[in-house]
Every structure is written in structure tokens, then in C-alpha cells.
Amino acid sequence: MDTYVLDSDALINLHEHFSGQFNKLRRLAQNGRLAVPEGVYRELNRTTGKLFKNLDKWKERNPSVVVFVRRQPRLASEFTRIEMAYGEKIEVGGKEYNGFWKSRAGKRAADGQVVAIGRVHGHIVVSDDRAVGLACMLENVKCIGWKEFARRIGMVKQAQLF
């Protein structure tokens, strides 16, 4: 079964669009199939209310939901490498794109943590951020958007055709 690592925007969008379906995310967390980097956890603590409370409850029941990058040497090393490679800019096919640090969060962005966790643990990254998507492509990490994630875990009900 797939395990997913989500960025802040994915969690915020899922909460905005499917707050009534959050039990599906809770189940993933209980089953060890949901990972949230410590940077995302801290960001949500600063910027959201109810969403952070949900996440904090999941963490109480299953502490492995929040991944502390610096506590895992291999993950910390990979995070540093990914930040250095894609923090400032990302080059794809001779064209340059803004890196992780050009986002609203700047160098406090958790993007590198999301990609590093996906790479080291083989998780599917859930992000619609272009820099994250490009880094995942270059690092051979599966990456999907929050809408596809919502479909995969059954948050979306397909409309009846007849």
C-alpha cells in the first residue's frame, strides 16, 4: 500500500474542500500511510487552527505521522543535498525555474523536506507546487496533486452519469 507525504498547501486544500471527509486522512494516519514533515507541521501551527488541531490529534495517536528530518541521519543528509540542489533554482532541459526558496515561505519552506522524505522512504509526494514537482521528477520520486490524492483515497464521489 502506498504511503503519502503531504505539503502544507495540499493539506490546506484538502481541509478547505473536504473537511467532512477528513476521517479518510485520519485512517491513513492511523495506518502509518500518511507523513507530514516537521516543517509542514510547524507551518500549519502558525497559520491554521482547526486543521492543525486535527493533525496534532493524529500525531498524539501515531507519533510517526510527523517526520522529524534531523532525527534520521540519512534523511537529514538527503534533505541537505536536495536543498542545495533545488533551493535557489531548478534547471530542467536547459531552462531555469525558481527553486524552493523563491516561494512565499522563502528558506523556511518545507519543500525540501517533502521531497527528501519521498525519496528516502519511497513515499508518494502530494504537492501542486511547481518546484516540488520538478525536483521530484529530477529525483525520480512519484508526485501527485491534492486533487488526485483526494480521488485516490475516496474523498471524491464520482457523479452518476445515468
Task: Please sum up the structure shown.
With 162 residues, the protein is α/β, with parallel strands linked by helices. Helix content is 52%, strand content 14%. The chain has one domain (4-152): 3-Layer(aba) Sandwich (Rossmann fold).
Q: Please provide the count of β strands.
A: 7
Could you tell me how far the N terminus lies from the C terminus, measured between alpha carbons in angstroms?
33 Å
Helix content: 40-55%
Number of domains: 1
Q: Which CATH C-level class is it?
A: Alpha Beta
Provide the CATH topology.
Rossmann fold
Please tell me how large the radius of gyration is: 16 Å
Strand order of the largest sheet: 3-2-1-6-7
| SSE order | EHHEHHEHEEHEHEH
Proportion of strand residues:
5-15%
Biggest sheet architecture: 5 strands, parallel
Mean pLDDT value = 92
Low-confidence stretches: none
What is the CATH homology-level superfamily?
5'-nuclease
Helical segment tally? 8
Structural class by helix and strand composition: alpha/beta
Give the overall shape, derived from the CA principal axes: globular
CATH architecture: 3-Layer(aba) Sandwich
What this model shows, in words?
With 162 residues, the chain is an alpha/beta fold. It has one domain (4-152): 5'-nuclease (Rossmann fold). The protein contains 8 helices and 7 strands, in the order βααβααβαββαβαβα. A hairpin with a 2-residue loop joins strand 4 (89-92) and strand 5. Helix 6 (111-121) runs parallel beside helix 7.
